[in-house]
Amino acid sequence: MEEYISNFLSDFQIAKGYTRNTLDAYRNDLKQFLNFALNEQPHLSGWTRVDKPLLLSFILHLKERGYTPASVSRKVTVLKTFYHYLVGSGVVADDPTATLDSPRFEKQPPKILTEDQVERLLAAPAEKISFKCRRDRAILELLYATGLRVSELVALDLTDLHLDQQTLHCTGHGGKRRVLVIPPRAGTALQEYLELARTDFSPQPNETALFLNPQGERLTRQGLWLIIREYVRRAEITAPVTPHILRHSFAAHALNRGENLENLSRMLGHSNVTTTKVYARLAEPVNPPALGNEKE
C-alpha cells in the first residue's frame, strides 16, 4: 500500500510540478491515514479494502485528538485526490471518498502587520553594521517589496537578479517563472549586500545562491525563519511574524497604495485572481489594527 503512495507522489510531481514541501505534506497525511487504517484493521490488504466507514472513523479519530476543522478538511482533500488517482490508474474500481464530505470551516483572513510594524522590522538590521546585517536587511527588504514566498527567496541564484534593470526573475509554484520589479530601497539594500557583504560569507566554490548562510552555502528555509524571528524580537513586535505574514502584508499594503488587483495577482504568482481577492478585505484602513499588544 505504501508503494502506491510513492507512485502517486512521483506522478503528481511530474504532472503538477508540486513543490517538495507540498509533496511531503501529502505523504504525511496519507501515511497517517494508512497507519490508522492498519491499526484499526491489521489484516487490511490493499486500498480496495478501504471503505467509507473506515474513512469516517479516521475523521472522528482526528477530531477527538483536537485537529482543527481546516486540518481535517485538508487531509480529506488529500485522500480524495489520492483515490481519484487510484481510480484513474485502474488500481481500484470504486472510490470510497466520492460521497465523503469535508468538515466545514470558516477560513480566517490572513494576518498582516501594520505599516509601522513593517518599518520597525525593516529598520532592525541597521542597528548594527556587519556583513550578516547587510544580508538580513536585503532579505527583509526584498521579501516585503515583492511578496516572495520563502521557497522562492531561498531558491534565488545570482543570475536571477538584474539590478541594472531593477528586475528579479523567480520560479514559483509549478515551475512558473515571473519577473518582478525591484523598488529602489530594496535595490539599494541588495547592492550593498552584493558589494560589501556576500564575499564575507566565504562562498563555497561554484555556489550560485544569492543568499548564503555562515557556511557559505545556500540559505535554507529554516535559516530564514530564524533570521526573521530574531529581528521581530529586536523590533519589539510581540505578535508572531512569519515570512508568509510579510507576504500578506505586502499584498494588503500594495492595494492600499492603489495597486491593480490583476497586477498584484501576477506579482504574487497566483494562478487565479480569485485567490488575490482575499486581500481586498484587508486593505482598509491604511494601518490595520495591530496583531497584539505592542510594547510602549
Walk me through the structure:
- The protein has 296 residues and is mostly helical.
- The chain contains twelve helices and three strands.
- The chain has helices at residues 2-16, 20-40, 52-64, 69-88, 115-123, 131-146, 150-154, 184-196, 221-234, 243-256, 261-268, 273-276, and strands spanning 161-162, 167-171, 177-181.
- Helix 1 (2-16) runs antiparallel to helix 2, helix 6 (131-146) packs antiparallel against helix 8 and helix 6 crosses helix 10.
- The chain starts with a helix and ends in a 20-residue tail after the last helix.
- The model is unreliable at 285-296 (pLDDT under 50).
CATH topology of the largest domain: hpI Integrase, Chain A
| SS-derived structural category | mainly alpha
Please write the CATH class name of the largest domain. Answer: Mainly Alpha
H/I helix tally:
12
